Amino acid sequence: MKTRYLTLFIALFSISVFAQDVNMQNGTITQCSGNLFDSGGPSANYGNDENFILTICSPTPGEVIQLNFLSFSTQINLDILTIYDGDSTAAPIIGNFSGGGASANPNFITASTSNPTGCLTLEFISDGSANTTGFEAEISCFEPCQTITAVLDSTSPAYDTT
Predict the structure, then answer these.
(1) Residue 139: partners with Cβ closer than 8 Å, 6 or more residues away
(2) How many CB atoms lie within 10 A of CB 78?
(3) What order do you get walking across the sheet with 64-73 strand by strand?
(4) Are 78 and 72 contacting, i.e. CB atoms less than 8 angstroms apart?
(5) Calpha distance 25→52 (Å, rounded)
(6) Residue-wise pLDDT tens digits, 120-135
């Protein structure tokens, strides 16, 4: 009987751990669910003079991180979210995002299959004055499709180079 309760407790605890929401901060997280918010969380604006670097990785090797931005609003060209395709700011830049409205929203951002870690790194820098509602993104992970490269061994009739 105790084993059943312990198993149920562990299962419920695991679900709540993996579904945690995260505010923008310095550090690394490993999770495949929940929401990512700016530092103000779901109900407040982000702050002035922020400089955060957050890396998001899957807990399962071989999976890649995907962010689905549900909302995005920052001071255009002043408060900037830079997203990198890897586990640090030395990785290739996917994009720099600022402003508001549909044209500013990053929408779906996915780590590339050439990224060996499957992680995404986000750097958010805000200036010293004014701020807006920031951003919200759903965090998910998936195993990408394998890359298939076709190789032609022979043809019939034989290949004609002329």
Answers:
(1) 22, 31, 32, 33, 34, 35, 36, 56, 65, 66, 67
(2) 15
(3) 22-23, 35-37, 134-142, 64-73, 108-110
(4) no
(5) 5
(6) 999 999 999 999 999 9
Rounded CA gap, 120 and 98, in Å?
Answer: 18
**Residues contacting 105, CB < 8 A, separation 6+:** 69, 71, 72, 97
Report whether 47 contacts 101 (CB < 8 A): no
Condensed to tens digits (0 to 9), the pLDDT of residues 147-161 reads 788 887 777 877 777
Q: How far apart are CA 105 and CA 54, in angstroms?
A: 19
CA 29 vs CA 6, 8, 38, 69: distances in Å:
26, 25, 15, 18
Instruction: Decide: pTM greater than 0.85.
Output: no
CA–CA distance from 41 to each of 23, 101, 136 (Å)? 6, 19, 8
